[in-house]
Structure formats: structure tokens, C-alpha cells
Design brief:
Layout: H1 2-18, E1 20-29, E2 40-48, E3 52-57, H2 58-72, H3 81-86, E4 93-98, E5 104-110, E6 113-118, E7 126-134, E8 137-146, E9 149-156, E10 174-180, E11 185-195, E12 207-209, H4 212-224, H5 226-230, E13 231-232, E14 235-236, H6 253-269
Parallel strand pairs: 6-12
Antiparallel strand pairs: 1-2, 1-11, 2-3, 3-4, 4-5, 5-6, 7-8, 8-9, 9-10, 10-11, 13-14
Length: 277
């Protein structure tokens, strides 16, 4: 009986360790350089396991769920544009950190395809002696320069994860808060809980692996000529799978014009990116 009890205990411990810890951050952004009064706020998840972590928008999972339900119940005909509009996000990227290799992989959609690169810049933190308390956690201050911004982070050793939101990590504990000195971006830990596993994310279109510099160039090209990235051989491709319109045929000129105007308007609204260089 003792042996059976020990086996049950070991299995229980293995199950608990297999779980993923989810940390929910409130992300506050001022993405429009021409209107710093326009503040966007949404939640993002940092899911952490012993092997890796994944940072992404809460709305990403909600959108994926809606898309899955839509295609299961009749596809494009039952597509709810209004619902999808309500789940739009300023966090269209995802970031995976490999615990063993210490590699940080960034993924973002440009047009119909997903571009991915491995971060090539180290985070050089300066840990300061200043401490305070944020919520229930005693935190310590650290600073770094990254992506053209000066960042201040507050980390806690109460949570034994050398991780944090966005690309941040490598401090002696979990980052509870991070903000840039211009007040344009901030990440604030709101709560945490356990989930069974990492969510399965829908991915439409091709995945193109590039160097970070090439990704930046492709982003710039997309802003200048968005329709080039949204078409293939003259055929419209929305979301890499034809989207709710289906795929095929040459898109009408008015449709192309509307799409181009929408993309350029989105570019203006996102003219103050989190990374400036």
C-alpha cells in the first residue's frame, strides 16, 4: 500500500509540474505617434513551462476560437465581422523563449504570411539597489536599453522565473512591471493561474524565417505597398487562406483601394512601434 501511495504521489507531482503557469499582463500602449493621447489597453498572456515560455495577446486566442467555430459551422457565410472587429489587437506578434538554448523567437504577420526571426541583441540589465512593493510582491529595480528605448523593470524573486513580458527576461526573478522612459509602453502583471498546456494557435499562410534586419525591411515595404503582400499572382489572399471572401479571381479595383486605404490607416495608427530601431 505504501508503494502504491508513493507511485500515486509521484504521478501527482509529475502532473502538477507538467502544468503551465499563465501570467496575465495589462499592456498599455500609445501606438500612434501623431496622437499621444490615444492610449490602447489590452491583456496579454505569458505562459511559462520548464522548457519554454510564450507571450501573446489574449485577443489572439479569442479570435482563433471564433474563427474555428465559424469554419466548423459553415465557414465564410457565418463569419461575424463585427465580433472579429471587437477582438482586434495591437499585439499581433508572439514571442517564444526557449529555456535551454536561451533563444528568443519572434513571429509576426506581414500581409498573408508569418515572418519569424531569432532575436540577435542581448539584454544587458543594470540591477539597482532600489526596492519597493507592487501588489503582494517585493520588487527590485533594473534598467536596460533595448530597441531604441530605455526600459525600467521591477522584478520579484518571490516568483522563481527568469522571464517577463515581451522579449524581456534574464533577471533573478519574474518581471512584475516594465515601462519605457517616454511613457509609451508599459506591462503590468495583473494575476496568474495554472493551465493544462499551451494553447494551439491557428496559423494561416506560409511561415518565412528571416534575419531580424530583413523582417524590418519587409515591414517597411509593407507600409509602402501593402497590396503586394496581400496578393499572389494577381489573386487576393486574405489571412493566407482567402479569408472570409474565399480565394480566387482578380479583386475589384474598389476592393483593392479600400484594402490599401485600410492598411495605410493602420500603419498610421501604429507609427510609434515598441521598437524604434
Amino acid at each position: 500500500m505504501k508503494k502504491l501511495g508513493l507511485i500515486a504521489f509521484v504521478l501527482l507531482m509529475q502532473t502538477s509540474f507538467a502544468q503551465v503557469n499563465r501570467f496575465v499582463y495589462q499592456v498599455t500602449m500609445k501606438p500612434d505617434a501623431s496622437d499621444k493621447n490615444d492610449t490602447k489597453t489590452e491583456n496579454a498572456y505569458l505562459d511559462i513551462s520548464p522548457e519554454k515560455s510564450l507571450f501573446y495577446s489574449e485577443n489572439r486566442i479569442k479570435r482563433d476560437s471564433v474563427m474555428k467555430a465559424t469554419f466548423q459551422s459553415g465557414g465564410a457565410r457565418s463569419f461575424n465581422r463585427e465580433q472579429m472587429q471587437g477582438l482586434r489587437s495591437n499585439i499581433n506578434y508572439s514571442i517564444e523563449k526557449d529555456k535551454k538554448s536561451q533563444k528568443i523567437t519572434f513571429k509576426d504577420r506581414i500581409g498573408r504570411d508569418v515572418y519569424t526571426y531569432e532575436e540577435d541583441r542581448p539584454l544587458n540589465w543594470k540591477i539597482l539597489s532600489e526596492t519597493t512593493k507592487i501588489g503582494d510582491y517585493k520588487v527590485q529595480k533594473a534598467e536596460t536599453d533595448f530597441g531604441g528605448r530605455k526600459w525600467t523593470a521591477w522584478f520579484t524573486t518571490d516568483l522563481p522565473y527568469q522571464d517577463g513580458p515581451y522579449k524581456f527576461g534574464g533577471l533573478p526573478g519574474l518581471i512584475v512591471k516594465a515601462e519605457d522612459d517616454k511613457g509609451d509602453y508599459s506591462f503590468d502583471l495583473m494575476k496568474n493561474y495554472k493551465i493544462d498546456d499551451f494553447p494551439a494557435m491557428n496559423q494561416f499562410g506560409n511561415t518565412i524565417k528571416v534575419k531580424r534586419g530583413d523582417y524590418v525591411k519587409q515591414q517597411k515595404k509593407f507600409m509602402e505597398d501593402p497590396m503586394f503582400f496581400m496578393t499572389q499572382g494577381g489573386q487576393i489572399r486574405i489571412g493566407g487562406e482567402g479569408g472570409p471572401r474565399g480565394g480566387g479571381g482578380n479583386p475589384p479595383a474598389d476592393f483593392r483601394k479600400r484594402m490599401e486605404e485600410r492598411v495605410k490607416d493602420e500603419a498610421k495608427k501604429n507609427s510609434n512601434p515598441i521598437e524604434l530601431q
